[in-house]
Design brief:
Distance between the termini: 33 Å
CATH architecture: Roll
Mean pLDDT: 88
Radius of gyration: 15 Å
Number of helices: 2
Structural class: alpha+beta
CATH class: Alpha Beta
Strand content: 25-35%
Order of helices and strands: EEHHEEEE
Oligomer: single chain
Number of strands: 6
Helix content: 10-25%
Low-confidence stretches: none
Protein backbone atom coordinates (compact mmCIF):
# COMPACT_ATOMS: atom_id res chain seq x y z
CA UNK A 1 0.00 0.00 0.00
CA UNK A 2 1.42 3.37 -1.00
CA UNK A 3 1.56 6.42 1.27
CA UNK A 4 -0.21 9.66 0.35
CA UNK A 5 2.22 12.32 -0.90
CA UNK A 6 2.31 15.32 1.46
CA UNK A 7 3.75 18.79 0.95
CA UNK A 8 4.21 20.63 4.28
CA UNK A 9 1.47 18.42 5.71
CA UNK A 10 -0.99 19.05 2.87
CA UNK A 11 -2.24 16.32 0.52
CA UNK A 12 -0.72 16.76 -2.92
CA UNK A 13 -2.81 16.27 -6.08
CA UNK A 14 -1.44 14.32 -9.02
CA UNK A 15 -1.26 15.81 -12.53
CA UNK A 16 -4.71 14.31 -13.17
CA UNK A 17 -6.34 15.65 -10.00
CA UNK A 18 -6.15 12.41 -8.04
CA UNK A 19 -4.41 12.09 -4.69
CA UNK A 20 -0.69 11.66 -5.40
CA UNK A 21 1.15 8.76 -3.78
CA UNK A 22 4.77 8.45 -2.77
CA UNK A 23 7.10 6.19 -4.70
CA UNK A 24 10.64 4.86 -4.19
CA UNK A 25 13.07 7.35 -2.63
CA UNK A 26 10.35 9.94 -2.16
CA UNK A 27 8.75 7.62 0.39
CA UNK A 28 11.94 7.51 2.45
CA UNK A 29 12.23 11.31 2.37
CA UNK A 30 8.58 11.68 3.35
CA UNK A 31 9.08 9.22 6.20
CA UNK A 32 12.04 11.28 7.45
CA UNK A 33 9.98 14.48 7.22
CA UNK A 34 7.07 12.87 9.06
CA UNK A 35 9.48 11.75 11.80
CA UNK A 36 10.75 15.34 12.10
CA UNK A 37 7.17 16.62 12.44
CA UNK A 38 6.19 13.97 15.01
CA UNK A 39 6.40 15.17 18.61
CA UNK A 40 8.37 12.73 20.79
CA UNK A 41 5.94 10.36 22.54
CA UNK A 42 2.96 11.50 20.43
CA UNK A 43 2.53 8.12 18.69
CA UNK A 44 0.97 5.81 21.28
CA UNK A 45 2.02 2.73 19.29
CA UNK A 46 5.65 3.91 19.11
CA UNK A 47 6.14 6.14 22.17
CA UNK A 48 9.92 6.39 21.69
CA UNK A 49 9.54 7.78 18.16
CA UNK A 50 9.49 11.48 17.44
CA UNK A 51 11.45 14.69 17.60
CA UNK A 52 12.46 15.86 21.07
CA UNK A 53 13.06 19.43 19.87
CA UNK A 54 9.40 20.32 20.47
CA UNK A 55 9.92 19.99 24.24
CA UNK A 56 12.97 22.27 24.32
CA UNK A 57 13.02 25.94 25.29
CA UNK A 58 15.13 27.59 22.65
CA UNK A 59 16.70 31.02 22.42
CA UNK A 60 17.30 32.57 19.04
CA UNK A 61 20.93 31.60 18.54
CA UNK A 62 23.26 29.43 16.49
CA UNK A 63 23.42 26.98 19.43
CA UNK A 64 19.64 26.51 19.18
CA UNK A 65 19.89 25.88 15.44
CA UNK A 66 22.62 23.31 16.15
CA UNK A 67 20.32 21.62 18.69
CA UNK A 68 17.49 21.56 16.13
CA UNK A 69 19.81 19.95 13.57
CA UNK A 70 21.04 17.35 16.09
CA UNK A 71 17.49 16.39 17.09
CA UNK A 72 16.40 16.19 13.46
CA UNK A 73 19.38 13.96 12.60
CA UNK A 74 18.55 11.70 15.57
CA UNK A 75 14.95 11.25 14.47
CA UNK A 76 15.85 10.82 10.77
CA UNK A 77 18.26 8.04 11.73
CA UNK A 78 15.47 6.01 13.40
CA UNK A 79 14.67 4.75 9.88
CA UNK A 80 16.95 1.79 9.16
CA UNK A 81 16.69 2.44 5.41
CA UNK A 82 18.88 5.50 5.91
CA UNK A 83 22.64 4.93 6.09
CA UNK A 84 23.49 8.44 7.30
CA UNK A 85 22.58 12.13 7.06
CA UNK A 86 25.04 13.61 4.59
CA UNK A 87 24.10 17.22 5.35
CA UNK A 88 21.46 19.20 7.21
CA UNK A 89 20.73 22.92 7.18
CA UNK A 90 18.55 24.94 9.54
CA UNK A 91 17.75 28.64 9.38
CA UNK A 92 15.31 30.98 11.06
CA UNK A 93 12.39 32.46 9.14
CA UNK A 94 13.17 36.14 8.52
CA UNK A 95 9.63 37.20 9.55
CA UNK A 96 8.96 34.84 12.48
CA UNK A 97 11.90 33.49 14.47
CA UNK A 98 9.69 30.71 15.91
CA UNK A 99 9.70 29.12 12.46
CA UNK A 100 12.80 27.23 11.41
CA UNK A 101 13.39 25.96 7.88
CA UNK A 102 15.19 22.63 7.58
CA UNK A 103 16.58 20.83 4.54
CA UNK A 104 18.69 17.71 4.48
CA UNK A 105 20.42 15.16 2.29
CA UNK A 106 20.41 11.51 3.30
CA UNK A 107 22.23 8.47 1.98
CA UNK A 108 20.02 5.43 1.42
CA UNK A 109 21.20 2.08 2.80
CA UNK A 110 22.01 -0.61 0.25
CA UNK A 111 22.71 1.54 -2.79
CA UNK A 112 24.49 4.53 -1.20
CA UNK A 113 22.28 6.92 -3.21
CA UNK A 114 22.09 10.50 -1.90
CA UNK A 115 18.59 12.00 -1.81
CA UNK A 116 17.76 15.59 -0.83
CA UNK A 117 14.64 16.94 0.81
CA UNK A 118 12.90 20.16 -0.02
CA UNK A 119 12.90 22.84 2.66
CA UNK A 120 10.37 22.15 5.41
CA UNK A 121 9.20 24.47 8.16
CA UNK A 122 8.86 23.56 11.82
CA UNK A 123 7.49 25.74 14.60
CA UNK A 124 9.44 25.70 17.86
Amino acid sequence: MADILLDNGDITPSLYGDIAVVTSYDEIIQSAINNIYTIYGENIFHPTLGNKIYGERLKISQNSLDLVKKNCIDVIMTDDRILHVQSINARYDDDDKHNIYISFTIVISGDNKSVSSSSIKIYV
